[in-house]
Amino acid sequence: MSLRVQLLLLQAVIVCLATLITGVIAATLQERALREAYKDRMYAVALSVARLPVIVDALDDADPAASVQPVAEIIREASDLTYVVVTDADGIRLSHPNPDLIGDPVSTDPSVPLSGVVYEGTQEGTLGVSWRVKVPIFDGDGTEEEAEVIGTVSVGILESELSADFLSQVPWLLAAMGASAVIGVFGAAWVTSVVRKRIFRLEPGEIASLVEQNETMLHRIGEGIITVDEHGVITVANDAAERLLGDDDLVGRRASEALEPAVADVLRRGEPDGALVLVGERVLIARSTGTTVDDAPAAATLLLRDHTELHQALREMDGAQSLTDGLRAQAHEFANKMHVLAGLLELGLVDEAREFITGTTPGGSMGDGEPRPILGQFELSALLAVKRAQARELGIALEVRRDTGDPPPLPDDFGHDLVTIVGNLVDNALEACGLGDRVEVAASTSGSEIVLTVDDSGPGIPSDQRARVFVEGVSSKALEGATGPHRRGIGLALVRRVVRRRRGDVALDDSPLGGARFTVRLPLEPAATTPRSATVTA
């Protein structure tokens, strides 16, 4: 059975049941109201008859029926009741619609009204089952409490007449119920049509399949997906988006408040090709459809992809290439020395060969000749060894200065952060320098903090630009202003975030070498408990 038929039948059944129940209740109330109306009329007629002077005075006559019967019949016909029966104190009829029954005792027990109490109820008499009221007739002298009961008045209407009166109104009630049911069914059909349009005329199975597909697409893929409505409120955020952004309470909040400025900017302006953004210490590619269409607000979708590990792999590949180039240059230099030495020996210049060997220095090696790792971190020493080889290939002198004493013990996760900080700062310095320039890296401990400085002899950074170089997307390099996945300005922003997480500080000044000096101070206390992503140099 299709959804349309199901909705129509269910609503039709509900409408019909509601109409039927309402009709039954209305009929019950109508019958009760009709019965109450007749009771009020019978009570008023009986009371008025019991208080008529002609009726009270006639009870003392020798033939009371002669005076009572005409009056009772006139009142019965005027009030449209079945009967008005007057009896004396012995229960003998003084009036009746059937004159042949006058003078006979009543067929029902008259003791209740003769005791001075009003009776109302249904009883079966000579005319049939009737709804009746019986009231006492008091002597005209004194109050009712002191007066004597000298007779009764019984007023009633047959139950059959009462039912006929009620049934005469039932067709109107049934017509109203039928009209309500018809209108309700047509309304149900209209509602069914509206609902079907709202759900694109899909059947329940199709809806369930779409929901399953949506759940699979949103919550089982690695890319983050965020959608916002035309008011800028986030309506959907999958698990990956919450993980990448480090916030599990995104839905229902405004995108401008919930997202970092760089991500919110990509969402607002639209970026179909993708742009590099920094979220915490993660490097993400963000793509967006934009929140405006023809200058009007519109719903938008933001796609986030984690490129942290990819950037790390690319940097490691660059380092491996630099290492390979350095080893190749070292091997070439060693081969040249061997050729010189072989030539000297071939010419018989033994003393000169001996002096050449003595004067040979390890200048072509990748290390700095120091067996101890920098700050006790082998990873940092290996990184700087590769950077030294890379710098030598670029014609740049890279010098590393360190403390001569033993470094203090560092937390286990300190080494990864040092690699991120130094790697990005050295890369920034090498890119700023050219052939014949110089870069110096200094690492030392001062009291309860580590001090790292990176100097270069490049062009430096103007003082009015120094406050902006740590802002994501700001770069003084050749690709400044570029958009898309190759946008620069990630490295220094990442350095500042790592340093701040370590409760440290990074500063930019003029270098004695003529270029820029970056100074990083890191306290040796534990870092903040902000979740940290994989180490990245960008």
Task: Characterise the protein shown here.
With 538 residues, the chain is an alpha+beta fold. It folds into three domains: 3-167, 2-Layer Sandwich (Beta-Lactamase), CATH 3.30.450; 222-305, PAS domain (Beta-Lactamase, 2-Layer Sandwich), CATH 3.30.450.20; 372-523, Heat Shock Protein 90 (2-Layer Sandwich). It is built from 15 helices and 16 strands. Strands 6-5-11-8-7 form a five-stranded antiparallel sheet, sandwiched between helices. Helix 14 (414-432) links the parallel strand 12 (397-402) and strand 13 (438-446). Helix 1 (3-51) runs antiparallel to helix 6 and helix 13 (378-393) packs parallel to helix 14 (414-432). It is rod-shaped, with a radius of gyration of 53 Å. The two termini are 60 Å apart. Mean pLDDT is 83; it is low at 478-487 and 530-538.
Primary descriptors:
Heat Shock Protein 90, 538 residues, five-stranded antiparallel beta sheet, 15 helices, Beta-Lactamase, five-stranded mixed beta sheet, disordered C terminus, 3 domains, 16 strands, single chain, alpha+beta
**Strand arrangement, major sheet:** 6-5-11-8-7
CATH superfamily of the largest domain: PAS domain
Query: How many H/I helices?
Result: 15
Can you tell me the overall shape? Answer: rod-shaped
The share of residues in helices is 40-55%
Relative strand content: 15-25%
* CATH topological fold name of the largest domain: Beta-Lactamase
- Give the domain tally: 3
Question: How confident overall, as mean pLDDT?
Answer: 83
| First and last CA, distance | 60 Å
CATH C-level class of the largest domain is Alpha Beta
Number of strands: 16
CATH architecture of the largest domain: 2-Layer Sandwich
Instruction: Return Rg in Å.
Output: 53 Å
Report the structural category: alpha+beta
| Main pleated-sheet profile | 5 strands, antiparallel
Low-confidence stretches: 478-487, 530-538
